[in-house]
Design the sequence.
């Protein structure tokens, strides 16, 4: 693996997570439980897809990758590197909120860290995106805290959503020793283990205030595979739907 | 007439934000560089407010066509990848225009948590700070929704952004 292949791997994984999570967020458009929430998930969808696009653009312009739209919509399922957490259907609102909470804190930690990346196109983008993602974590924190304090049922549902999401969320940090070693040596990023530690500290502090118990990491099996191209049964139907219009005429100019 | 930077800025004053029609691209702090290049051509660099702003290409085209029309010169508009927009770039005069338009302007920030800044956003209708944040997301990516306990208005707020 070369340096550029390792960077390509990292950026593709990050972009695919943002794209697929963005698509899931957009599935709440028109269906949110209250109007503010409908708008919130729709806005976050727009942000995430914008973030994915910015990363695909770096792949295209700096690493000889394909044109962003084609790369986003025309790859085969196994070429996507998203984690299983973002592939899962939205389910009930408790699941969507908990996934949003765990995923966006991971995004926040990652982008804050990438401000110091030695890979030039990444640092200015990181400085911009970390400010935008703060609004995502602000939204998630507010709902986690409110629902956990509201009533027994809402608290119990958030705890069970946390139990379901946690092993999936560990998959965000699926290791890739070869790529990570290269990227860490070049000071391009800090590596998945370091990011996971920071993320655990952050989510723990908020969950503790909300009265939720973070499952013991040693007692669960992290859900890996996404970064290697092994996906859940939910990804292919999502890709079919997401790229449907684009594939009707890939040469069309929009 | 010769092309001067002054005339370019005058022309830019006419390019309004399509989502907030009372503010032009200079008010918003979206212009990072203006240059008269060889052969009397114009190079302008700009930055979007939010990275996923859907209006970027529209604004970029509006800048090009307006400056071309006003100056009769060939104009190139580039996205500046070195700079990034933050809400402290907004001109003070722009904040007054925003408030008169019914949108609370962004507070000056210096790296503190957004939750603290957003807590007491002054109502653009009655100036009361007895308000609360209803949602950090609004009708466009750059807006949040607040409620004023004093006058009972729901109002929008141009969010501070680092």
Sequence:
């Amino acid at each position: 693996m070369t340096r550029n292949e390792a960077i390509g791997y990292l950026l593709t994984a990050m972009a695919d997570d943002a794209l697929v999570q963005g698509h899931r967020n957009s599935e709440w458009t028109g269906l949110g439980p209250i109007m503010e929430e409908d708008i919130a998930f729709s806005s976050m969808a727009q942000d995430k897809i914008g973030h994915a696009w910015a990363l695909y653009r770096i792949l295209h312009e700096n690493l000889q990758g394909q044109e962003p739209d084609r790369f986003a919509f025309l790859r085969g399922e196994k070429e996507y590197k998203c984690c299983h957490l973002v592939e899962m259907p939205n389910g009930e609102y408790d699941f969507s909120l908990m996934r949003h909470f765990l995923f966006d804190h991971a995004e926040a930690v990652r982008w804050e860290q990438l401000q110091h990346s030695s890979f030039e196109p990444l640092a200015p983008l990181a400085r911009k995106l970390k400010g935008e993602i703060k609004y995502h974590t602000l939204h998630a924190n507010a709902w986690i805290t409110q629902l956990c304090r509201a009533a027994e049922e809402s608290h119990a549902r958030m705890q069970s959503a946390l139990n379901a999401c946690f092993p999936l969320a560990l998959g965000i940090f699926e290791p890739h020793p070869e790529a990570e070693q290269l990227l860490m040596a070049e000071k391009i990023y800090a590596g998945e283990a370091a990011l996971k530690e920071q993320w655990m500290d952050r989510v723990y502090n908020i969950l503790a205030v909300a009265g939720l118990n973070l499952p013991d990491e040693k007692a669960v099996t992290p859900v890996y595979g996404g970064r290697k191209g092994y996906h859940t049964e939910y990804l292919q139907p999502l890709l079919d739907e997401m790229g449907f219009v684009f594939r009707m005429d890939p040469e069309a100019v929009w | 007439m010769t092309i001067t930077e002054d005339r370019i800025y005058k022309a830019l004053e006419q390019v309004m934000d399509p989502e907030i029609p009372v503010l032009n691209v200079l008010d918003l702090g979206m212009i990072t560089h203006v240059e008269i290049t060889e052969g009397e051509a114009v190079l302008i660099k700009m930055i979007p407010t939010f990275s996923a702003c859907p209006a970027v290409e529209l604004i970029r085209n509006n800048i090009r066509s307006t400056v071309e029309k006003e100056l009769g010169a060939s104009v190139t508009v580039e996205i500046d990848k070195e700079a990034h927009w933050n809400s402290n770039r907004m001109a003070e005069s722009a904040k007054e225009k925003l408030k008169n338009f019914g949108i609370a302007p962004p507070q000056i920030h210096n790296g503190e948590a957004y939750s603290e800044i957003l807590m007491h956003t002054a109502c653009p209708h009655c100036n009361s700070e007895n308000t609360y944040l209803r949602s950090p997301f609004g009708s466009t990516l750059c807006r949040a929704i607040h409620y004023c306990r004093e006058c009972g208005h729901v109002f929008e707020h141009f969010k501070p952004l680092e």
Remarks:
- Residues 31 and 46 of chain B are 4 Å apart (CA to CA).
- The longest strand of chain B covers residues 31-37.
- Chain B has a mean pLDDT of 93.
